[in-house]
Amino acid sequence: MPSTTAITVSQLSRLIGLPGAPAIIDVRIEEDYSADPRLLPASNRRDFKTVSTWASEFAGSRVTVVCQRGQKLSQGVAAWLRHEGVSAESLEGGFEAWRDAKGPLIDAGKIPPRDEKGRTVWVTRARPKVDRIACPWLIRRFIDPSAVFLFVEAAEVSATADRFQAVPFDIDNVFWTHRGECCTFDTMIEEFGLESEALDRLAMIVRAADTARLDLVPQAAGFLAASLGLSRMFRDDLEQLEAGMLLYDAFFRWCRDATEETHNWPSASKPS
Cα(9)–Cα(23) distance, rounded to whole angstroms? Predict the structure, then answer.
């Protein structure tokens, strides 16, 4: 009989990268984490021993708890969270089952330091079009759902990064930027170690739209048109980012599930 307090690897994999994905809490002991310092996408590392002090932070959230094998630590933490009124499940088989199923994993060493509220902070040029929406989408969906994004004048990005301990991206002469014919979105996928066919498809669309190579994939022209349209609709860059998240969610879902689906109306068949 299926467990009512656990989620399987296949079930969780269908949710990763989507807006309704659960918050993922990694409670592996330090020895296990040090042996493989990678994380499930958008994971939050927490100490299982202090669950009573941080459980309330996840009130109103859906949570998946991950330990090494899906046994006492994750089941115990999930039970404690449920006691606190949180909708919590443990991952069946834990980190090992996810890893063995070749689920996407993040190189934790590439995640920037977090601020006092546990958030990564990023800064880039104002008036985003493609790459500067794509990268925040990737970070929010796969790296840090609570990430902060600062949009400032191009000339002020470096100074803002220094003053506010923010990570600059998509500008010249920084780590997180274009490399050769690839855009910053490609760089982030590579550096974080994300291996996903759907993300690779999406990256091709983003690259084509962002670097004026619309011949690379047929979806690029429409994607660029939608991106430019959003940039004209919003004066506030953060409002544009929130609206753009839905565009990227839709294209990611198409890249994952719907590339073979077609639509035709009226029907090609003729009445007899």
Answer: 15
What residues have CB less than 8 Å from 143, skipping those under 6 apart?
41, 42, 106, 111, 120, 192
pLDDT in tens, 141-196: 999 999 999 999 999 999 999 999 999 999 999 999 999 999 999 999 999 999 99
Contact at 8 Å (CB) between 122 and 40? no
pLDDT tier at 2, thresholds 50, 70, 90: low
Listed residue (182, 85, 194, 79) closest to 141, CA to CA: 194
* DSSP annotation of 143: I
Peptide bond into 266 cis (omega under 30): yes
Distance CA 65, CA 268 (A): 50
Surface-to-core class of residue 218, CB atoms within 10 Å of its CB (0-12 exposed, 13-18 middle, 19+ buried): exposed
Cβ distance 79 to 55 under 8 Å? no
Q: Which two tokens stand for residue 51?
A: 């669950």
Question: Which H helix or E strand runs over 151?
Answer: strand 148-152
Write out the two tokens for 75.
Answer: 């089941």
What are the backbone angles phi and psi of residue 149, rounded to the nearest 5°? -125, 125
Instruction: Determine contact, residues 12/43, Cβ cutoff 8 Å.
Output: no
Average of pLDDT values for 21-28? Answer: 98
Instruction: Report the alpha-carbon angle 172-133-238, nearest 5.
Output: 110
At 4, list the tokens: 């009512």
**Under a CB-based contact definition with an 8 Å cutoff, are residues 19 and 42 in contact?**
no
Binning pLDDT at 50, 70 and 90, where does residue 268 land? low
